[in-house]
Design goal:
IC97/Dnai7-like; 18 helices; Chondroitinase Ac, Chain A, domain 3; IC97/Casc1_N; alpha+beta; flat
Length: 771
């Protein structure tokens, strides 16, 4: 009989507890895995059901969306046709006015006349006597070119930017570039003549030659170091508006310094950097040149021997290079900085004090070879914001300017567009730093706020075309001309939206502005690139406008009916023969009456937005300038330019009630859903209760609840056919929720120029696609 095996050692309570804990952990892990699998299954099931629902929906709605897309094309075609006709009429009127003025300045759009004028002006002499030069002839030539021709060309250039006419943009830009090259060449020639004819009978033997004058748009200064007197360290130009402190290396050389300062907006467009760093010039351009000084004239009894600087009659520039002390082999960084300080010139000049200057603004110089702005060799920059005084040191004699970030106001914090009165709208934009209020009308655009006091120009009262106004604002530091390309800007994680989506939004907004106000939606920046989201609300005058439209519409119908009955009565009372005799006469009268009736209809609708019309007065509510009014109820419009389903792309647009989304996230239903929409919006389903969500056959267990809790407001903006009714474009969305009589009134009251200016300013500011 084998021996009995020894019993194993009895497990302790601690070991048993540990095994139990391991079993529980394994069981919990398995349950968690099964839970994850179930959640994944629920997601896939819900995604499949959503896909099938969308596929079924788009298969039914495809033809309707296609018809709506064709309607949008016809609307664009009609707009382009009307704008072209209006533009042609304006062009004829302007040409006639210029003809009556007997102006010798050519039309910028007439290539042959413009080229002939520039060619003739280029060859005109700059002074009458080259041995006794003065600037009188140049002062007579430049005002016509700078104040009239350049302004006319630049106006046409900015209009071409408004219209996206690439051919005209390039042509007019090249003309501006050519004209300013000729202007600078003429300054080179007059400078050369002044240098070659320095008076030999200066009043003081220790005095240097200096010439300063305001010539047309330029502040011109020329200084010649004849005496090499070390006591002369500061050069004053144009009543001390520009100062240059010269270092010892220049004082001890026979050299000349020239300074030209101009604040011409057209010229600023010629100095756009090729690199990705986007900078805007504030104020004007400061041209600094170090010129060779000719030997003095030798005068005898009957002869004058005069050295000539150049054969082509232009100045000869001198390179300004730092030279280390003799017997110095190695220059460390400290020694190099010390040398730079010794060789630097200190320059100061004034820019307009109303400029909005950022803390990051600095002085840079233009590299003509690389075509970029850089700050190499520049130091000790100081800016007095109140007086507009700019000071800096530099070792480079190059074009200099005060620059700052071009897109400093982006991304836009907030914006609001509201209807003011007939063909007048207010656009309020809050940027990262500044806030502006613009007025848009059929005359153009103008700045309402802030008030800008520019000398010799009533800036806040003058109307400009959209791009011209935004460029003028940029020149004084208000940078609200938005980026159009992702390569132009790198700020935060914001991205530029699909331009097609923006185009649809602008079309709808520009056509239905009289009935609605519009503003930014905070979820626009978080939505996909294909989507543009903004908010709208019926404006305070919408009910009055609707009432007037219906009244005028019914009034015209009643008048037509009475006219028809009157004619029928006249026909029954007259005999047959008389009718035959006057048949042609009646037809002519009938046609005339129809024309008069149409005119009366249009005139009546013109009264629609007249504040003095009828007993109800339009409300002028300045409180709408508040961008953050929490008491107002706004609805959101989602325009998706490329909704993708199985590699098929659709353009869809729908309305979202943000309050309902919040209630869905909180698993609550709104107490009074009717209060969140207006009477005119009942035709458009707007984000109904959570019960209309996509449903599955899965019971509402804790897994389904957990799945629903993953959704946030941004996710709920996603389109679902059971929640939203879609259209092809924003235009059709507003068309459906607006009364037909009001639509007719708006179309008859339409101003193509107002619509054009509104479209351009919305696009150029980029408030829809980048905020």
């Amino acid at each position: 009989m084998p021996p009995k095996q020894k019993k194993g050692k009895k497990k302790t309570k601690k070991q048993l507890e540990r095994e139990r804990q391991l079993e529980l952990a394994a069981k919990a892990a398995e349950e968690a895995r099964q839970r994850e699998l179930e959640i994944q299954r629920l997601r896939e099931l819900k995604a499949k059901e959503e896909h099938d629902l969308l596929d079924e929906f788009f298969s039914k709605e495809k033809e309707i969306l296609k018809k709506q897309a064709e309607e949008i094309k016809s609307i664009h075609s009609e707009y382009n046709h009307l704008y072209k006709n209006v533009k042609h009429e304006i062009s004829i009127e302007k040409n006639w006015e210029k003809y009556l003025q007997c102006s010798k300045i050519p039309n910028p759009k007439n290539e042959s006349d413009l080229n002939s004028y520039i060619s003739v002006w280029k060859d005109e002499p700059i002074c009458n006597n080259i041995h006794e030069p003065n600037t009188e002839l140049l002062e007579m030539q430049l005002p016509d070119v700078e104040s009239i021709l350049c302004v006319d060309i630049f106006n046409e250039y900015t209009k071409a930017l408004d219209e996206k006419n690439e051919k005209d943009i390039e042509t007019l830009y090249n003309h501006l570039k050519e004209i300013y090259e000729i202007i600078n060449n003429k300054y080179d020639k007059i400078s050369n003549l002044l240098l070659e004819n320095i008076p030999s009978d200066l009043t003081d033997q220790n005095e240097n030659y200096q010439f300063t004058k305001k010539i047309s748009k330029s502040e011109f200064g020329l200084w010649c170091n004849i005496t090499k007197n070390p006591r002369y360290k500061t050069i004053e130009f144009n009543d001390k508006r520009q100062l240059i402190t010269i270092p010892k290396p220049i004082i001890m050389e026979s050299i000349s310094i020239r300074l030209i300062y101009r604040e011409e907006l057209p010229e600023l467009q010629l100095y756009k950097a090729n690199n990705k760093e986007q900078l805007a010039v504030i104020g004007g351009l400061l041209f600094l040149d170090l010129l060779e000084l000719p030997e003095p004239k030798i005068e005898t009894n009957q002869w004058i021997i005069q050295p000539v600087l150049s054969n082509n009659g232009v100045v000869k520039r001198v390179n300004y290079e730092i030279a280390p002390p003799e017997d110095t082999e190695i220059i460390d960084e400290n020694m190099n900085s010390s040398l730079q300080a010794q060789w630097s010139i200190e320059v100061s000049y004034f820019i307009p004090p109303e400029c909005k200057i950022l803390d990051t603004a600095t002085v840079m110089q233009w590299d003509p070879i690389k075509k970029v702005w850089n700050n190499e060799g520049i130091s000790d920059v100081s800016i007095n914001i109140e007086s507009g005084l700019v000071k800096f040191k530099t070792i480079n004699f190059e074009l200099a300017a005060l620059v700052q970030e071009k897109y400093s106001e982006y991304p836009i914090i907030n914006w609001k567009l509201k209807y003011k009165s007939r063909n007048l709208a207010i656009l309020i934009i809050q940027g990262e730093i500044n806030r502006i209020v613009l007025e848009i009308s059929n005359k153009g655009c103008r700045l309402k706020s802030p008030i800008i006091n520019i000398m010799n120009e009533n800036f806040n009262e003058k109307w400009y075309n959209p791009n011209l106004l935004l460029m003028k604002l940029s020149q004084i530091g208000l940078n609200f001309r938005g980026p159009k390309n992702p390569d132009e800007i790198t700020l935060n994680d914001n991205i530029i939206k699909n331009p097609e989506a923006e185009k649809h939004c602008i079309l709808g907004i520009s056509n239905y502005l009289p009935m609605f106000n519009f503003r930014k939606c905070e979820y626009n920046s978080e939505s996909p690139t294909s989507q543009v989201i903004f908010q709208f609300m019926r404006n305070k005058n919408a009910d009055i406008i609707e009432k007037r439209a219906k009244y005028l519409y019914d009034k015209e119908l009643k008048e037509k009916e009475e006219l028809k009955k009157k004619k029928e009565k006249e026909m029954t009372e007259s005999d047959y023969n008389s009718n035959n005799i006057i048949d042609d006469y009646n037809k002519e009268n009938e046609n005339r009456n129809i024309e008069n009736s149409n005119d009366n209809i249009e005139n009546s609708y013109n009264e629609l937005f007249d504040p003095n019309n009828m007993e109800d007065e339009l409300i002028d509510d300045e409180s709408d300038d508040d961008l953050d009014n929490k008491e107002e109820i706004w609805l959101s419009v989602v325009m998706d330019a490329s909704y993708i389903l199985d590699e098929n792309k659709y353009q869809i647009c729908y309305i979202v009630n943000e309050q309902d989304l919040i209630n869905e996230v909180l698993n609550e239903n709104p107490e009074n859903p009717e209060d969140t929409s207006t009477s005119t919006m009942n035709n458009m389903p707007v984000n109904t209760n959570a019960s209309n969500d996509l449903k599955t056959d899965i019971p509402q267990n804790d897994l389904a609840i957990e799945l629903e809790e993953e959704h946030d407001i941004k996710h709920l903006y996603k389109f679902s056919p059971k929640k939203y009714e879609i259209m092809n474009s924003v235009y059709q969305v507003f068309d459906k929720i607006t009364d037909e009589k009001v639509i007719d009134a708006i179309k008859l009251n339409r101003s193509i120029l107002f619509e054009h200016n509104l479209r351009v300013i919305l696009h150029e500011t980029g408030i829809l696609i980048y905020n």
